[in-house]
UniProtKB/TrEMBL annotation:
Residues 39-365 form the NADH:flavin oxidoreductase/NADH oxidase N-terminal domain. This is NADPH dehydrogenase. InterPro entries: Aldolase_TIM (IPR013785), OxRdtase_FMN_N (IPR001155), YqjM-like (IPR044152). It comes from the Eukaryota. The lineage of its organism: Eukaryota, Fungi, Dikarya, Ascomycota, Pezizomycotina. One of its GO terms (molecular function) is NADPH dehydrogenase activity.
Length: 432
């Protein structure tokens, strides 16, 4: 940075540049008081303090080249931090080259992938916000094409051939059962390979530390490798990683232990699960909410600080019973079950959270629940007693509206810090 050093009261310094400081971080209430909605109160996760309860849910963008993040990711992820998300969780980041969902996925399987990612984390930190990474392996759902080619009529649901840059002969799963006819035919991992993948997660976590992340999330949801092991439908193994509940969760438990062992005691660890694979309709054994609750009760003692409650994605013929609270309610159920046993692990809610009132009510004890909404109209229908979650994770709403945090604050009547550069653009009026 040429020229004289600017006064640090005005400027925040990132390793490669200075930028106007956002003090307090954008999205922080300027005059907090006892009646400030919980949504705009801090959340403490070990040494990490989030200034509000909004997190950007991980979202694959299929825009990486050989697993490397690019300027696209800087603009995309940076915009959420700039506009008030206290935590931005980076997309599913593969711990192995053949664990990418698509050829456009991000990875951390070699040291060269650290620097492009660090640039983005540094930007987020310069905004006074926090960054998390989701560590993942796609298992049998690996090796597809990114995006959608309207001419070829092929895309994310189709296997990438070798000519496409794919690896159809190098796709692995707990058992040799394909997801469907358009995905690769996976091979069953040996016991030694599973143990090797535990180490891959730990090595990727070590690289993520070098990137500078504030927290990490282990991706054990959506039918990717770790969730394939949890399910009796996709895990037909006869070794120590298959069969009983204890055996099916073993791989996840070992990954948690391995990651926890390399990250500092002060760093929070998150886990995302599919709380049900929505296969109850078959009448056959499947991963379901009771097993998720059983798993959740074990996690605090393993050093997990927050369970991010998602669902589905493991079976092409899942039948989801969909309504605005279809996932949030399960999060609430798990939270209740934990609290009933005095377990203190925090819960993240995700899925179809689109309005100020819905976001508010999810984390607010004794709050008012929002009813059905078309995304613009908010209807209050009753009084809830307990919060369903501690953190709200947002995916598609953030893509539609990266300034969602600022609009929610305005609509709930909370005066929050705006980006200094956008100070003249405050929302005006009763609700927007
Ligand atoms: C474009 C896109 C990419 C996604 N990629 C991921 C991902 O990398 N990891 C993950 O756990 N979930 C992923 N998801 C799921 C979201 O994180 C989120 O759980 C889901 O979209 C429901 O939240 P929403 O209703 O706010 O979109 C993705 C969703 C979208 C829309």
């Amino acid at each position: 940075m040429p020229g004289t050093q600017p006064p640090m009261s005005i400027w925040a310094q990132a390793p490669d540049y200075v930028t106007p400081a956002q003090r307090p971080p954008v999205g922080t209430p300027l005059a907090p008081h006892p009646s400030t909605p919980t949504l705009f109160t801090p959340l403490q996760l070990r040494s990490l303090t989030l200034s509000n309860r909004f997190a950007v849910s991980p979202m694959c963008m299929d825009s990486a080249w050989d697993g490397l993040m690019t300027d696209f990711h800087l603009v995309h992820l940076g915009s959420f931090a700039l506009r008030g998300a206290a935590l931005t969780i980076f997309e599913a980041t593969s711990v192995a080259a053949n664990g990418r969902i698509t050829t456009g996925d991000v990875g951390l399987w070699h040291d060269g992938q650290i620097a492009p990612m660090k640039r983005i984390v540094d930007f987020i930190h310069a905004q006074g916000q926090h960054a998390g990474i989701q560590l993942a392996h796609a298992g049998r759902k690996a090796g597809n094409l990114p995006g959608h080619d309207p001419l070829l009529k092929r895309g994310v649901n189709d296997m990438a051939t070798v000519a496409d840059g794919g690896w159809p002969e190098d796709v692995w799963a707990p058992s040799a059962i394909p997801y469907n006819a358009t995905y690769a035919r996976p091979k069953a991992l040996s016991t030694e390979q599973v143990e090797g993948l535990v180490r891959s997660f730990a090595e990727a976590a070590e690289r993520a530390l070098k990137v500078g992340f504030d927290t990490m999330e282990i991706h054990a949801a959506h039918g990717y490798l770790l969730s394939e092991f949890l399910s009796p439908i996709t895990n037909k193994r006869t070794d120590k990683y298959g069969g009983s509940f204890e055996n099916r969760i073993r791989f996840l438990v070992e990954v948690i232990q391995a990651v926890r062992a390399v990250i500092p005691e002060t760093m929070p660890l998150l886990v995302r699960i599919s709380s049900t694979e929505w296969m109850e309709w078959t009448g056959e054994p499947s991963w379901d909410v009771p097993q998720s609750i059983r798993l959740a009760k074990l996690l605090p003692d393993l050093g997990v600080d927050l369970l991010d409650v998602s669902s589905g994605g493991n079976n092409a013929d899942q039948k989801i019973v969909i309504h605005p609270y279809y996932q949030v309610d399960i999060a609430g159920q798990i939270r209740e079950a934990l609290r009933a046993e005095g377990k203190s692990m925090l819960i993240g809610a995700v899925g179809l959270i689109t309005t100020a009132e819905m976001a508010r009510s999810i984390v607010q004890a004794d709050g008012t629940l929002a009813g059905e909404t078309d995304g613009t109209v908010e209807v209050e229908v009753g009084t809830g007693q307990t919060a369903k979650a501690d953190l709200v994770l947002l995916a598609r709403q953030m893509l539609r509206e990266p300034e969602f945090v600022l609009r929610v604050a305005h609509n709930l009547g909370v005066e929050v810090k705006w980006p200094v550069q956008y100070g003249r653009a405050h929302f005006r009026g009763a609700k927007v």
